[in-house]
Amino acid sequence: MTGAVVRAKGVRKTFENREVICGVDFDIRAGICFGILGPNGAGKTTLMRMLLGLSPVTEGDYTLFDQPVSETSVHSRVGVVPQQDNLDPDFSVSLNLKVYAGYFGIAVAEAESRIIELLDFAALSARGNDQVSTLSGGMRRRLMVARALINNPDLIVLDEPSTGLDPQARHLIWQRLRSLKKQGKTLILTTHYMEEAAELCDELIILDHGKILTSGAPRALIAEHVEPEVVAIRGLSNELDAVELCEGLDIRLDHVGDTWFCYGIDARPLVARCSERSELIFIHRPASLEDVFLKLTGRDMREEA
After folding, report:
1. CATH code for 4-216?
2. What is the average pLDDT across 203-208?
């Protein structure tokens, strides 16, 4: 192998004369978690469908384990956790895993051994005989992760793995995903939760309109694209009020709705000014990956594509 589990070079995808993936290049090294981020309609789903052999590549080289993504045999080394829950509600937890093992031709004895291990991994050992319909949302997501591991894949693709989960369930999912990386698995993560991407990803790309806007490690991207401190302020009467509040300070202003975002290297003088105005509601925090995402892709609402 070249050292890259996935390699994209000049990858393009066209639908009805409209280019939706515009010559992207990236490598995904073995043993890391790689994030693919972008607003709705950015091209994330198309990129993943091509990777999984579900949609043909229009142009360029897109390889998986050094084989073209169109090579069906290589997909046996991949596990997929889809965004939508597609567990069979009429089957028990264990039977869902057993049926899935059958798709990969795994012998019954080996499958039963793996099911025991995977239920333990997913913290579902006590629920093996329960119907899927009785599980909570967090349990169902953990079961979907376990199901994706039934064939002992080298690459796991996770589409919005913690969508709709409460903080406790989300953190448990994150812990399980980190443990997979420690086992040497490679993860590809798509998510709209910037906190999730920052927690899990070693490297990521931000995609928009089919093009890669930036790539790198989360902390490096924050340092590259935004100032280190942010003050988010509500209660300012208008733009002039915001400008006057920041007068004489090295502050970059941005806003959405009634909230002004003030970015700077040292925001303490601005915080002091805000504290003198009782009508203002403000939060002083470090810059985050979400600030990078919004700076590069804009704050306008995107419709589902």
Report:
1. 3.40.50.300
2. 98
